Amino acid sequence: MNDPIALELRKALDGPWQQVRQDFRDQIEPDMLLGTPGESIEAQRDRVTSQLVRLASLGHGRVGFPEAYGGTYDYGASCALFEMQGYGDLSLLVKLGVQFGLFGGAVSRLGTERHHDEVLTDIMDAKILGSFAMTEIGHGSNVQRLETTITFDPETNELVVNSPTPSSVKTYIGNAAKDARMAVVFGQLLTPANNEFVGHGVHAVLMDVRDESGKVVDGVTIEDNGVKGGLPGVDNGTFAFDNVRIPRSALLNKFADIDDEGNYQSDIENENARFFTTIGTLVRGRICVGGGAASAAKKGLAIALRYGARRRQFEAPGHDQEIVVLDYLAHQRKLFPRLAKAYALSFAQNAITESLQELHGDTRADGDAPAKEDIRELETRAAGLKAISTWHAVDALQAAREACGGAGFISENQLTQARADVDVFATFEGDNTVLLQLVAKGLLTEYKEMFGDLAMAELAGLVTKQVAEGLVERTAGRAGIQRLRDIAKGRGHESAMDDSGWHLSMFEQRADHALETVGKRLRRANKENGFELFNDAQDHVLFAARAHIDRCILEDALESMEQMPDGEAKDLMAQVLSLYALSSIEDDKAWFLEHGRLNTVRSRAVTSAVNDLCKELRPHVHTLVDGMGIPEELITAPIATGEQTTSYA
Amino acid sequence: MNDPIALELRKALDGPWQQVRQDFRDQIEPDMLLGTPGESIEAQRDRVTSQLVRLASLGHGRVGFPEAYGGTYDYGASCALFEMQGYGDLSLLVKLGVQFGLFGGAVSRLGTERHHDEVLTDIMDAKILGSFAMTEIGHGSNVQRLETTITFDPETNELVVNSPTPSSVKTYIGNAAKDARMAVVFGQLLTPANNEFVGHGVHAVLMDVRDESGKVVDGVTIEDNGVKGGLPGVDNGTFAFDNVRIPRSALLNKFADIDDEGNYQSDIENENARFFTTIGTLVRGRICVGGGAASAAKKGLAIALRYGARRRQFEAPGHDQEIVVLDYLAHQRKLFPRLAKAYALSFAQNAITESLQELHGDTRADGDAPAKEDIRELETRAAGLKAISTWHAVDALQAAREACGGAGFISENQLTQARADVDVFATFEGDNTVLLQLVAKGLLTEYKEMFGDLAMAELAGLVTKQVAEGLVERTAGRAGIQRLRDIAKGRGHESAMDDSGWHLSMFEQRADHALETVGKRLRRANKENGFELFNDAQDHVLFAARAHIDRCILEDALESMEQMPDGEAKDLMAQVLSLYALSSIEDDKAWFLEHGRLNTVRSRAVTSAVNDLCKELRPHVHTLVDGMGIPEELITAPIATGEQTTSYA
């Protein structure tokens, strides 16, 4: 690619882990990451497993693990690499995520030296494949209520893993049906005391589920989840445990342990706090899932945009040939605002990756614990960004498919499988709706209250405007966007439609007002009316959460744009981000009108401005597609490469 | 089912073809209409073909064909039957549609006795399977520009079918890859005159593509379209023709013929008019596609609602068990407005089916030609309703899948395959965006202008407010909704939120104003600025089209509701249709605010009213699901039947 503007755009989007991304582009070949449409499920699973092993041999598994065990990169790099892997087959992406992120990550972050010594290097090298067995038939979102039991037996110094009910069976577990030798299994830890068992909440153990020959361990029953709506190359399955005995040392004991006398020990006394600390350690998974989905969306948009710029249909007076479909406003409207959002989300993804690196990365000295508020904010943003990014991916791939018509429905054009695969990204690593509630909960509650023994509806009663504003303000201290904001203030109400400062102000008003009013609504909650009061406001709560995340995304994007050198690329980026901001304002026009933030004249002007921006960006479409930095080798769709005829000469 | 309210709802939704629907419910068994997830493509194709043959043996192929050839039912009944078939596997539905609707329908409606005598009975009995070969690589939406040529050779009294360019190859043709013995092939008809060839526009021929042994005919090349994003049981493929010679009599000569002297003859002189008459004859396909998609949506919603009413997740203070997920407002909001739309669309589908029967049905005496305006209106509404219904299906199935979480992603729960299949319904039988433009074109243009040799942008210049209003008024003469309207007028601006007359008025205002203003915008169009002017207004044009169809849907629904006997079922239906109407108003809140049709207080009240209705409908969920009249045998999803555990006892 020789377009200097596109190269500058790419550099901006590549962000701090540019080298990881470029190494990936230089290194990969299509057969390392792509499949062939129509393979049988067995063939897809085998292909994905061997691609996983091959990528591991290239070091992809070592990124993000401690150097002491052969890890080679920092923690943030593992997220950037995952984004790049998202341009390939998403079955492979999920398989990589299960092996190195969920399974490997849980062993690494919840386990201690005894576990690391035993398996970490083999995990990185994909010599031991494993599962992350959290979800059960009865509980996906409400993990605190898992039913699997992990009971300590002091007689034998063992833990007994059991599935006491049909609904306690682990399900949808990646790697389970075919590949997993081991699994990190979550369940309620029980220890005996005074002739009864005391529960300590959800803990995890590392255990074998198959032996080296692949035979399932005694007491474990594994079933195949069978055909799914996507991700055919991932061997999801179920685990049922019939009082399986494992050594006490199998407990992943970073935050809690059972000592030699059989006593439960933890530095975190509150069970709720321990649970959230345990879960919080796994925040990288959410960040990666959002990033991977966003990559799939980018590739889909790239394919639809390239095809749209070639495909012609319908004649018009004064035009010799039929009109290029991307010249139609409706087609532009289908694709450009989603492209703009893809750009904005890239910056937000970079920002959260940096934040993860700063708070969880191995560069941080051990004694230098991050502030709880920072951890909480990271978790809140990870939850929200995951929801927004994965829904964006579903939506963008759908729009891309429709924009390509019948050709879009043919699998070799690389839209349908990605669309089907990305669907469940809205569900796994946290159901999106539940995640947005978590965001609201995070915003509405002081960090310390999070670990109290209170349900959400009660927590809401504790909200104060101060807390909410305090949280919001923390995100707003950056130089670039401060400058944009200051410029806008000087202009007053008659800001131009492309004024980033005005966009920021609109996004802030939406987020602040929504949060403040939802806080007021919920302040009356108590134990009796809590659920009903909260439930009646649930749409309002979700809106406030979304508004907050949208604001964070715009701030991250504008801050990154401001750091670009002045010139054509930056100007083009400013237009793209204007389109992102104005499209979002347009989507919520009714809210802005209802709350007096837009009058009807200006409200209509927003729509005109979106149309104008679509037209202005049209000539730059190839630059904008190239600017996303998708490895060209992975775009094989004939409609995008030009191999497929689109109309007569 | 014994719920008397549900039975009354079902009766209302069943409408005029109640008997066809009930016969279907009584007759069918799961293995006649369902597949098994995970079958290979070959197995699915074989299964679908044999299910097609079996349904033909039960007379499903005879519905809608003339009695003279063994047809048994009326034309409208074939649409109602297609809706019912939409509760089964959608690959089978499409296969049925290709065979009996597109292929059989084209032979029946575009051909004459010589063709009917030859093949019609065999088509009905599925003894001759066939394709409808219209779409080409280069042209899907713009069928007038097809490149396939059908050239008359007077020397041999033959027609020569040819694919002159790579982009002229027929593609995505159902039945082509495996089953089709014959095909109706569309192409440019050319006849010689004065040493050159004269083109007469797009015509169709009936020709063999395979012999009885299945061998492809000489000069025809067939390829398999391969793996698609859905509809795996449909053998889509390509046809390329290398100067294939067929007898002159193969021309489907209902509207045009070549006489024994080799002269082209048609009663419709204008080529454009001939084209639209030809295409218009096939309007049933669009009606059926919309109806079939809507059925798939109903089934998906039924599954999600039944599961949502059982599944529990998250505790709340004052509740012993975890909360049933359908008790959450966010979950209700995901499913209830879509359920309400499914109800409303059912009535609109019945209305358009009645209109088709009246205008195209065999009950009409031959001399009694329907008015051109009525035909035009039918085609406009068919186009619009197809777009709205198929997008609704994509959206509703997506929402249903997400509402069922991980379980929704497991194929045995019947959501994922339907979601994947229905995707392309938004594209075939007319791309939805293009169809909405057709609606606008229909509204903006007098019928006779449609057949002028003018492009859309020029046509738009001809609009007059009178024409537009005339067209709109024709839909508004019915007693039931007139009564609702009159009652509302008495109340003035302070109508209650559940006032159907107010809903009607809001839908009318949206439709009328949008159309009027788009007409004004386009009035300045001429040959020079036509395309640009039109293109800049394209979003406005599409909005006007959608607003018109939404209005038609509400009118049809309320009219049908008004005909229900007074009582609980009717009251419940009124609530359902209120929810439909208010959700639609809520979706377009910004428009109503911008245009002074809602003030900000009332605008917020709309959202509250939607929330209230969700809560009010919650206790009736099983009645509303049963009321849709989906054959229970076809709902096999374990999460819906209760076979799957959802949480511990």
Automatic annotation (TrEMBL), chains A, B:
<dbReference type="GO" id="GO:0055088">
    <property type="term" value="P:lipid homeostasis"/>
</dbReference>
<dbReference type="GO" id="GO:0033540">
    <property type="term" value="P:fatty acid beta-oxidation using acyl-CoA oxidase"/>
</dbReference>
<dbReference type="GO" id="GO:0003997">
    <property type="term" value="F:acyl-CoA oxidase activity"/>
</dbReference>
<feature type="domain" description="Acyl-CoA oxidase C-terminal">
    <location>
        <begin position="504"/>
        <end position="640"/>
    </location>
</feature>
<keyword id="KW-0576">Peroxisome</keyword>
<dbReference type="Pfam" id="PF22924">
    <property type="entry name" value="ACOX_C_alpha1"/>
</dbReference>
<keyword id="KW-0443">Lipid metabolism</keyword>
<dbReference type="GO" id="GO:0071949">
    <property type="term" value="F:FAD binding"/>
</dbReference>
<dbReference type="InterPro" id="IPR036250">
    <property type="entry name" value="AcylCo_DH-like_C"/>
</dbReference>
<dbReference type="GO" id="GO:0005504">
    <property type="term" value="F:fatty acid binding"/>
</dbReference>
<dbReference type="InterPro" id="IPR012258">
    <property type="entry name" value="Acyl-CoA_oxidase"/>
</dbReference>
<keyword id="KW-0285">Flavoprotein</keyword>
<feature type="domain" description="Acyl-CoA oxidase/dehydrogenase middle">
    <location>
        <begin position="131"/>
        <end position="244"/>
    </location>
</feature>
<keyword id="KW-0276">Fatty acid metabolism</keyword>
<dbReference type="Pfam" id="PF02771">
    <property type="entry name" value="Acyl-CoA_dh_N"/>
</dbReference>
<dbReference type="InterPro" id="IPR046373">
    <property type="entry name" value="Acyl-CoA_Oxase/DH_mid-dom_sf"/>
</dbReference>
<protein>
    <recommendedName>
        <fullName>acyl-CoA oxidase</fullName>
        <ecNumber>1.3.3.6</ecNumber>
    </recommendedName>
</protein>
<dbReference type="InterPro" id="IPR002655">
    <property type="entry name" value="Acyl-CoA_oxidase_C"/>
</dbReference>
<dbReference type="InterPro" id="IPR006091">
    <property type="entry name" value="Acyl-CoA_Oxase/DH_mid-dom"/>
</dbReference>
<dbReference type="InterPro" id="IPR037069">
    <property type="entry name" value="AcylCoA_DH/ox_N_sf"/>
</dbReference>
<feature type="domain" description="Acyl-CoA oxidase C-alpha1">
    <location>
        <begin position="280"/>
        <end position="444"/>
    </location>
</feature>
<keyword id="KW-0560">Oxidoreductase</keyword>
<dbReference type="InterPro" id="IPR009100">
    <property type="entry name" value="AcylCoA_DH/oxidase_NM_dom_sf"/>
</dbReference>
<feature type="domain" description="Acyl-CoA dehydrogenase/oxidase N-terminal">
    <location>
        <begin position="51"/>
        <end position="125"/>
    </location>
</feature>
<comment type="similarity">
    <text>Belongs to the acyl-CoA oxidase family.</text>
</comment>
<dbReference type="InterPro" id="IPR013786">
    <property type="entry name" value="AcylCoA_DH/ox_N"/>
</dbReference>
<dbReference type="InterPro" id="IPR055060">
    <property type="entry name" value="ACOX_C_alpha1"/>
</dbReference>
<dbReference type="Pfam" id="PF02770">
    <property type="entry name" value="Acyl-CoA_dh_M"/>
</dbReference>
<dbReference type="Pfam" id="PF01756">
    <property type="entry name" value="ACOX"/>
</dbReference>
<keyword id="KW-0274">FAD</keyword>
